[in-house]
Amino acid sequence: MSRREVLAAGMAAAGAASAAEALAQQAEGQPLLGDPALPEVPGQRMRWAIVGLGTFAVGQVIPGFADARHSRMTAFVSGNPEKARDLGARYGVSRFYDYENFDDIAQDDEIDCVYIVLPVGLHAEYTIRALEAGKHVLCEKPMCNTVEEAEAMVAAAEAANRQLGVAYRVHFEPNNLDAQRRIAAGELGTMRFISADHGFSADPNWPPHKWRLEKLLAGGGSMFDIGIYGMNTSLMMLPGDRVVSVSGTYSTPAGDDRFTEVEGAIEYRLRMASGISIQGSSSYCYSPYVSRQRYFGSTGSIEMRPATTYYDNSIELEAGGAPRTFRAGNPISQFSAQLDGFSQAARTNTPHRTPGAMGLRDMRLIEALYASADQGGAVVEVDIPV
Amino acid sequence: MSRREVLAAGMAAAGAASAAEALAQQAEGQPLLGDPALPEVPGQRMRWAIVGLGTFAVGQVIPGFADARHSRMTAFVSGNPEKARDLGARYGVSRFYDYENFDDIAQDDEIDCVYIVLPVGLHAEYTIRALEAGKHVLCEKPMCNTVEEAEAMVAAAEAANRQLGVAYRVHFEPNNLDAQRRIAAGELGTMRFISADHGFSADPNWPPHKWRLEKLLAGGGSMFDIGIYGMNTSLMMLPGDRVVSVSGTYSTPAGDDRFTEVEGAIEYRLRMASGISIQGSSSYCYSPYVSRQRYFGSTGSIEMRPATTYYDNSIELEAGGAPRTFRAGNPISQFSAQLDGFSQAARTNTPHRTPGAMGLRDMRLIEALYASADQGGAVVEVDIPV
Amino acid sequence: MSRREVLAAGMAAAGAASAAEALAQQAEGQPLLGDPALPEVPGQRMRWAIVGLGTFAVGQVIPGFADARHSRMTAFVSGNPEKARDLGARYGVSRFYDYENFDDIAQDDEIDCVYIVLPVGLHAEYTIRALEAGKHVLCEKPMCNTVEEAEAMVAAAEAANRQLGVAYRVHFEPNNLDAQRRIAAGELGTMRFISADHGFSADPNWPPHKWRLEKLLAGGGSMFDIGIYGMNTSLMMLPGDRVVSVSGTYSTPAGDDRFTEVEGAIEYRLRMASGISIQGSSSYCYSPYVSRQRYFGSTGSIEMRPATTYYDNSIELEAGGAPRTFRAGNPISQFSAQLDGFSQAARTNTPHRTPGAMGLRDMRLIEALYASADQGGAVVEVDIPV
Amino acid sequence: MSRREVLAAGMAAAGAASAAEALAQQAEGQPLLGDPALPEVPGQRMRWAIVGLGTFAVGQVIPGFADARHSRMTAFVSGNPEKARDLGARYGVSRFYDYENFDDIAQDDEIDCVYIVLPVGLHAEYTIRALEAGKHVLCEKPMCNTVEEAEAMVAAAEAANRQLGVAYRVHFEPNNLDAQRRIAAGELGTMRFISADHGFSADPNWPPHKWRLEKLLAGGGSMFDIGIYGMNTSLMMLPGDRVVSVSGTYSTPAGDDRFTEVEGAIEYRLRMASGISIQGSSSYCYSPYVSRQRYFGSTGSIEMRPATTYYDNSIELEAGGAPRTFRAGNPISQFSAQLDGFSQAARTNTPHRTPGAMGLRDMRLIEALYASADQGGAVVEVDIPV
After folding, report:
1. 10 Å Cβ neighbour count for D372?
2. Which residues of A are catalytically annotated?
3. Tell me, which fold does domain A170-330+354-385 have in CATH?
4. Which GO terms describe its molecular function (chains A, B, C, D) (predicted)?
5. Over the stretch A87-108, which tens digit does the pLDDT of each residue have?
């Protein structure tokens, strides 16, 4: 049987061509124009410069642009020109800066947004320089080393009339957004208590961990790096509340020589104006990786375990019946969604979902927490709105 | 076909009788004598009086004797003679006392052990009277209303040369024993932190909950009743350690009129001499029921969720690979095992696994915790060995 | 402070005695008489003889009486008199028979029910002898070796006007009853398909497994012993349907010398008059233990994994939202509930929930299945109501 | 405090610039060149034409290119030019064809590979035309309508000396690859049995489902569309084995007017030369979505639930201890990995992991299965290597 005969058998009397046309009409007929789920035409997207090409930038931030719909990369800033050019070739980025000529980005019209992915100790300087260059800035968490730096960063954004965001990606993670929505909708009744435990085992011989153990570069210890997820995510679920006091204690293991400059472990309690508490722990001494949030309400509870990882978060809801587990379909989207969220904030010059002010708030809370722990857990009163 | 023919077909040439004999030899041949898994001959078991025939006694304690191997009931003490006699007929118990003639048990040779299942406010009095009557006493948790009562109970046991136990059934629950064994064996490396959340929603209209809201009868609030599971179970995993300070805060909902006498909710932190902390919450305002323990170590972690319920506890272990869930086969045994454990302690007049001293320790810890919470969370230093 | 002072402090103004009385009234006040959850007075319960004291009898059947409410043991029948007397002393059983004088039970008024726990090849003979002795008989599963034996057993029960039950304990297991109830209530919509896989690894050197590999004693292979759970439990969910055809294939591993007399593994498909199929597998070559049932419906599905074990079954329901897991509170009850169920059937001389006729049905199905497998999987038509 | 002062405080004595340089060296220092995890330079990647812009193409295939490293799109073939141009603008695709001028791709040097994403009834024609145009072709599953079509497609690839692949994405899904690796490594011992259930509820009013119910366009019913996942994935775990017989039965609900042309539901059994069976079900009448694979071995078992979905698959392994759940980190990769896998096959002109021959094999198996079901489940002997 010839190919023509086979096809004739397959497509029967109908000529293949006209059947295909009919099918095209049928299967391809849905409207597309303006579909918000589709990527924007590249030439219209916001243009980003990435500052710092370390492990996190190469492994998470840059790949996150692949699925972004309103954001594209146009420039790399790096002290390693060979690496920058290699990555540029792979990702279609052709504009390069280093830490010497960084301020020249002010003259570069192909950059709208700057993403600071440097070690924490450099966040303040480069954020402020980028804002002064007239760019919108998304700065990695934690925001910076001190409350004073954070205040200066916020002031710089205001002076420049540009948006400053802190990259709290959890606010764009679909499972956490689902928890936030359920809590706001009253699925747990009244919130009664939040528990948050986060940590991992810091490896002083691995470069991405090594600088986290140096105070000048990291700003602080486990609370700065990993505990901040617990605190920030917990507060994400309590809009409109205020922190009225803080207490904490260190549990850094005695004699562990990783922790000569920053704390290895800390426990904390935040008291809220609404009368409830958040209790958590943060550690560079847990293994395997810990990332757990629990929300206990008057009529239901949510457990997230893990809660704040890159891909594998989920919600377990107990409320009126057997527990149910929810897992958002496509878990990669938090990185891309964060980029697009900031692009839209920058485009409209309106505040990002996790603005500089939120980063400043967290710096104040951690500062109070360290003050308490330095006094062995004494209650430190504050008045910090969520 | 006649029945004989059928059987002949089934059993073939071999005569059924001799086959049965052969089978009896084969299938029934394992030795039994002295098998510790089998129940002891009733006449040799320790004999118990149950004091108080409320919901918990009828629903859990008394049925627990069905599967006990070294314990049997011989007497009921109750203010409701009709109920006592009805239960007696059903369970083969024929000796009855009331709260007036209770001290007459001293003359009753058919009672070795007394189980106090009264409201907390009566524990001290009836425990001491039973000890003075020469009986060994297992007292329900929490032990009593105050540290002073606990001290008097321990002193009475010593004076009478009888065993006093507090019914911390979790120490006989197979999943918690498995966790204890794994932790002691170093499966988590060095313990770094413990988190413990426990609670339920107290219903003031349900008699078994109603008395728990009255200070005179309950001794305290949620911490006395449900939070104590978290604290006691956490300490069960830290043998040889000491509590060096305690802090706590109340989260009793403002305006909730269930809580005019006792606290509705409390958070706590215990600092240990080993340098680690236990953080927990206890609430009469959670729903659904919360019973969660987590143990975070340097190389592994255990999550128990639920941790301390009657039937459904399990362990999830994360250490060196994917998480694994373990669930003890026959979960009913904690009630029966506790009875048998105390029977053996009484028989040999050696300390029970959860002795009066442990109950006294917990009363001291809760007293310190309340003192801290009364001061808004101030650190209260103690020196209390586990 | 004296003991009196301590107590006075604890109980305040109220005299302890009157407080205790008040409490007794409050905490002990619920009515009891006639509460169906409480055990019946022993003298009124149905009285059982246990025939065969092998591993399963000693490990599961006899302990099951501890929590039974309408059943008690009065006699043991065994070829091992020493073992019988030892167990008798422990469990309060004082009447003993052996396989020689077994028929004398006809003259024993202290026996109402007889539980046959012998190897399968002896079921028919001892069941019929017990029925002829005027006793009601609960016979372990599988019912017997052949359809002819099963027919003779059913006929003997009819002739004696006594109840005959087959010990399909799953019909008394709370999680399976929950599945049955949900399916009947339409929670899955219309049933579409059932999948059932069951098996374990038979150990020819362990006595309780050894006789299962001998055709004369076991009747058949894995399908008789473990696959029958899958088939019987699946049919439990399809009341009113009929089996219209059966097909099966053997997967006994070539050269596995455990399986010279009985099949090691078999797969089966049952076609129902309603148009749906049940597909399952049964194996003596799986490890670890497999016990899985799945029910797929037009609007929901249930997965039970494990489905038919002694203690640890659960239901996972997917219907209209995220999956939910249900686990019955006290999982030990299937053994006790089965005893009490049969006691009630015997007392009222009405059919047991899993009567002899159900055992006969299953023998017919397995016979047809073996006939199909002997022909390499050819469809064997039957007409057997559920 | 001025910005300079703030920064000076933050960075202490070290000048910020030199610290940044040091950090760049430290954090950006890892080598990159040749890292296989990074995307290839776009100009060197294989270039793809997508044929058919329906729901699956727009929702899964096209977005899959975002994370591909060796593949990029250069052309769209569609009967809807407006849609094609809109998508082209968004994704940087500027070459367009329709079903009339499709054969002109032969002259287009910017196309290396063609992905056929049309309804099944058009697969054969467009695959053969693309091969005749000198392009490598990845064809969506199922391969085509009939064995004869499949044979013609394979012959056309051979004649053209081009690669033909069938888009069995599961062979690139990390969790299934993990299962395949574990099984090959003997983690389950010897394979004993495979169970596979797959299905969903077909909605005749939803365009992407509608054509699946028409025989001319879909080729067959649920087995063609969804059951094929179960059969193909099961065989993926049995390399080197042969199918020796097939049997199946239809369970299409009587009177369901969705199924006038194709079967709604079918059950199947494949017997393998190794002596084991695969049993499965396939249905357009299950809800919610069912995708379950289980592998039972002599020393272990794997359950995948779901097994073959886009994002949420996982493995539960039971072997030597408590069950363990494994979930691949970044679950989006199966679409991208498949594209890159075929790009490499095309670049080197060596067979794809799931070649046309595999699609032909599956067409033969389904044809035999339908033949069996047409005869009520009779065994149909075949001899088809995996």
Report:
1. 22
2. 141, 229
3. Dihydrodipicolinate Reductase; domain 2 (3.30.360)
4. nucleotide binding; oxidoreductase activity
5. 999 999 999 999 999 999 999 9
| Chain A nearest CA to D91, separation (Å) | 7
**Residue A132 · residue A342 · CB < 8 Å:** no
Where are the extended beta strands (E) located within C62-112? 71-77, 95-97
Cα–Cα dist C210/C198, whole Å:
19
Distance to chain D for A305, nearest Cα, Å: 14
Higher pLDDT, A153 or A2: A153
C286·D265 Cβ contact <8 A = no
CATH number attached to the domain at C42-169 = 3.40.50.720
CB of A154 within 8 A of CB of A164? yes
- Annotated catalytic residues of C are 141, 229
Q: How far apart are CA B161 and CA B164, in angstroms?
A: 9
- B223, B227, B230, B231 alpha-carbon torsion, rounded to 10°: 0
In words, the CATH class of domain C170-330+355-385 is alpha beta
The residues near C150 (Cβ < 8 Å, ≥ 6 apart) are C124, C143, C144, C356, C359, C360, C363, C364
Is B56 strand, coil or helix? Answer: helix
- Give dist(CA D255, CA B70) in Å, integer: 64
Chain D hits for C377, Cβ within 8 Å: 245, 247, 269, 271, 379
The CATH class, in words, for D170-331+353-385 is alpha beta
C-alpha span between D61 and A43 (Å, rounded): 23
**Across the 386 residues of chain D, what is the mean pLDDT of every consecutive 10-residue run?**
44 46 56 70 98 94 95 97 96 97 98 98 98 98 98 98 98 97 98 98 95 96 98 98 98 97 98 98 97 98 96 92 84 85 98 98 98 98 98
- So what's the pLDDT on residue C14? 40
Domain locations along chain C: 42-169, 170-330+355-385
**Is the reported ipTM for this assembly greater than 0.90?**
yes
What are the respective helix, strand and coil percentages of chain C, to the nearest 5?
Answer: 40, 25, 35
Above 50 in pLDDT, residue A3? no
Residue B47's DSSP bridge partners are B72
Closest residue in C to A315 (Cα–Cα): C322
- CATH homologous superfamily of A42-168: NAD(P)-binding Rossmann-like Domain (3.40.50.720)
Contact B341, B173 (CB under 8 A): no
Please, which chains are in contact with B (at least 3 CB pairs closer than 8 A)?
Answer: A, C, D
CB-defined contacts B:D, below 8 A: 15
Across-strand partners of B51? B77, B116
SS3 state at C89? helix
Q: What are the catalytic residues of D?
A: 141, 229
State yes or no: cis peptide before B39, omega within 30 of 0.
no
Contacts 24+ apart (CB under 8 A), C20-26: C20/B79, C20/B99, C20/B118, C20/B122, C20/B125, C20/B126, C21/B79, C21/B99, C23/B79, C23/B118, C23/B119, C23/B122, C23/B211, C23/B217, C24/B52, C24/B78, C24/B79, C24/B80, C24/B99, C25/B79, C25/B80, C26/B207, C26/B210, C26/B211
Chain C CB contacts of A317 below 8 Å: 322
C14: Cα separation from own chain's centroid: 55
Q: Choose the closest CB to D20 out of A7, A10, A122.
A: A122
Measured between beta carbons, which residues in chain D are less than 8 angstroms from residue B321?
Answer: 324
Q: Which of B251, B287, B379 sits opposite A277 (nearest CB)?
A: B251
Q: Can you give the pLDDT at residue B27?
A: 58
- Which member of C265, C276, C305 has the closest CB to residue D251? C276
CATH code of B170-329+355-385, in short, is 3.30.360.10
The mean pLDDT of chain C is 92
Residue B71 near residue B65 (C-beta atoms within 8 A): yes
**Would you say B215 and B262 are in contact if contact means Cβ atoms under 8 Å apart?**
yes
